[in-house]
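User: Need the bound-state model for protoporphyrin IX containing FE:
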Amino acid sequence: MPATQEYTYTEVKGHNTKKDLFMVIHDKVYSVGSFVDEHPGGEEVLMDVGGQDATDSFEDVGHSDEAREILEGLLVGKLRRTESDPKPKLSATTTSQTGSSTDAGTALYAFVLLAAIVAFGAWKYVQ
Ligand code: HEM
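Assistant: Bound-state model below.
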């Protein structure tokens, strides 16, 4: 099947059995039936997201490049969204990165403040 084939969300939903399992990751449609038994993370998790958008589940695990290569081999087409379809899922990475940069900023601020106090103490000491 050519990778340019388009599927609607309703069509993807119809493929939710172990042998005929479709899932959507980053708006692309994958047919994972042949891989279910080989998945190192087990068949259960794949069945849970069968016929659905699995972008979050797939990215949350932090799959390796090898996993992404396998994924490309399972590609059957792309998703054609209609008005009533669920919105595209965003990767959680962006949010957590913003969080950690704020933490780093706070730590730097505290460090500079502490260094100033120590410098002031040292200056007083030598007077
Ligand atoms: C067709 C899509 C998927 C492919 C090709 C795939 C492939 C793989 C591969 C190759 C691994 C071994 C570790 C690695 O290389 O990263 C792995 C591990 C894992 N996968 Fe997936 N995966 C897919 C979808 C999912 C989904 C939707 C979930 C849902 C939660 C999931 C959960 C896991 C877990 C929990 C592990 C860790 C297993 C362990 O280390 O014990 N995977 N997957």
